[in-house]
Amino acid sequence: MTTTISPRDNSHRAYRSRLLFKLTIVFNVANLMANALFMSLPNDYPLEEPYGFGQLVILFQAGVVLLLILVNILTIVFFLQWFRRAYYNLWKIGRRPDHTDGWAVGSWFIPILNLSRPYSIMKEIWYDTGATPSGATDSRTVLRWWWVAYLVHTFSNSLANTVMKKAETMPQILAALPLSMFSDLADIASAALSILVIGYVHQAEQRWQLRVQLQRLGEPAQQPEQLRPTEEEYYG
User: Where do the DUF4328 domain residues begin and end (predicted)?
Assistant: First the structure.
């Protein structure tokens, strides 16, 4: 029997990433509610009114947006940590990925290339980590929709921000809100699908760890120095 090296633990990264994506959904729902309340205001509502209902809605929305920005930053950091470790683990289970784990992270930040390369890298993770002994793989429908939702949110959010920055009057703001709400819905879909994708890969990694543990039954116990990660293996 061929012994496979156990993948590095990715549980904490998976947990934190999924938790932050859930918070992303919560704050996007709150932002949708704030936008819906704002859209109920008349076109001639005086935005300069200091203590009106509209100002309360604006303050509530501003607070939600600030929290959402913070959550988005943390989500990016922890998701990329999880993504890098998941890709690195392909080497640990005997696969030969096309890129390095560092490139897996860098591919998200290169214009044009980031429209397709992260998806191709995720497909490697999806197939190689989730492959069964018979060579069969689970459906990749979720993965496809995950990437579509991400791209839709990316473009709609950029467009919504551009339109909203140009809106100065109440009618212009009200006209821009539907696009902003569509972007929020796309973000919710993207976050929900990210939770599913991370969960799928995490379960597959756990199955690999279980296989290795079963293979090692009866073998001599590893020495402490063998259990320490090498300099190449350790990061973050």
Answer: 60-200
